[in-house]
Amino acid sequence: MIPTPEHRPPPSLRTPLPPLLTRMSRRPSGLVAGLVGGAVAAGLGLAVFAVLATVLWISSPYPDSGPGAALHVAAALWLLAHGADLVRVDTLSGVPAPVGVTPLLLLALPVWLVHRAARDAVDGGDDGAPVVPVSGRTAWAGVVLGYLTVGGAALLYAAGGDLRPAWRWPLALLPLLAVGAAASGVWTAYGRPRHPVDGVLVRVPRRVRRRLFGAAARQRYEAAVRGAGAGVAASVGGGALLVALSLAWHGGATRTAFLQLTEGLSGRFAVLLLCLALVPNAAVWGAAYALGPGFCLGVGRVTSPLAAAPAPLLPPFPLLAAVPGEGAGTPLRWAVLVVPVVSAVAVGWYVAGVAAPRGGDRTAAWPRGRTVTATVLAALLCATAMSALAACAGGPLGVAALARFGPVWWQVGAATLLWTVTVAVPVAAGVRAWRCREPKRSPAPKRSPAPKQPPAPKQSPVPTPSPAPTPSPVPTPSPAPTPSPVTSPPPVTSPPPVAGRRRWWRRGVAGTPAAGEPGPEKAPAASEPGQEERNPDQGEGAEATPATPATPATPTAPATPAASATPAAPPAPRRSRIAALAAWFGVARKPGGQPASPSDRAP
């Protein structure tokens, strides 16, 4: 009987699952997702190599095998990308020849695929919101198991081809790469936390933990990692620059080797792809050459800036054509030593940048001993990284003379450590001291004596303006008094000068009034408007000239009472024409109208 919804017990009365069963019911989903992700990552890598090998096999003008051989080669190349050594069975001498030079560019493909698969397994999908929470351990385990499952199948399949893997290397390197790349993907998915490392460090004794893994030690480690990364980048970049310059210098030999190696278009395309995959290896070789130890092109044949031994018979290959010729070192070859110097300077500069940041507080800078310790640690990390790169970039390419091909890892590590410690430590200490120096205090400016001021001129006291006196009322002019009879003639005065031609009747004595003429009259005031003035030179019928209005006088101080009390002089008497004629003929009359006596006449 199937229980209907009415017969089902309520949720509160249901029996809950045990916690262990609950966790086991959730775990398979995350584990399965990890297994699928790891298998897909391995399958994608195999598919890339399979497609490439199949295309080259199809385009080859002389295919000497079927598609199965192309797939065997693809599986072998996929294992070679993980660092595994291969063995070439079909040789002219019949002796198997090892192929151990791993193209470093191929190594980036499987690492990226496994890292991406582990990160997606933790995230639960592209939307970043998993329905069921997946722990990091579960996702990591699933990805590693899925990848190794497909990798084991590829290993078994590649073992039946002409280019088969050597069993000792795939069994060690394939799991190591899968474990490391998956752990990096899980750590990235969780935001790169530090608590997993702290959980491991809890088991370390407290005194050792404080000294080696405290806050100050972590800052020192971070500075060392940054400095080591800068040093490795500078070394590898300098090596790549040397390879490019050498290829340009030996351009003719490089082109000849590329054309002689194969004739078909597909073959040349395969050689070009191989050269591109070996470019990182060539950069590491160039860095080893600049460091001093150089690299080996066979047993007993070392090429370095100091000397180059005669090379054995090498196959024509474009990258090998750029190798410097044999002979002693020259100043041009010694110039490559600037690459490790620049690398060591970069290490010291980055460590000093953390120890004493530019523009930071001088009191917060690291002590000198701590800066030197961080620089030495960065040199150790840089030497370790360069040793690992040198070990991966080289390997055997055959037997006998070709058993050693590439740089020697321990020599490269020792040379890197020597260069870095010798140059980076003084650079870091010097930069730190320069940034922590006390700023120079500018000397106080000398006070120049104040210029002597000229004595101020003695100024006379400015008189205080006295208040203007109240103007006194202008007295009303009284009427002119009637002149009394003159008993004696008035003094003779000369007439005022008249512009123009002198009249004939003015040639006599002026100023003598004629007989029967009235006495002198007062001239009208010039300031009274409307007055008319008659020119004595004009005739009686002439029109009177209007008097010129007086110009308003500038206000001045009022006149003193003494000056105003002085009576004005009486105006000169006016003469008529008859008086002027009488004066001309010498006949004068008295005021009463009687003729003047001879004594009264003018001389």
UniProtKB/TrEMBL annotation:
PANTHER family: OS04G0446401 PROTEIN, PROLINE-RICH FAMILY PROTEIN. Keywords: Membrane, Transmembrane, Transmembrane helix. Residues 446-498 have a biased composition (Pro residues). This is DUF6350 family protein. Coiled coil: none annotated. InterPro entries: DUF6350 (IPR045931). Residues 438-577 are annotated as: Disordered. It comes from Streptomyces flavalbus. Residues 507-529, 544-567 have a biased composition (Low complexity). The chain crosses the membrane at residues 31-57, 69-87, 99-118, 138-159, 171-190, 228-249, 269-291, 334-355, 376-402, 408-431. It comes from the Bacteria.
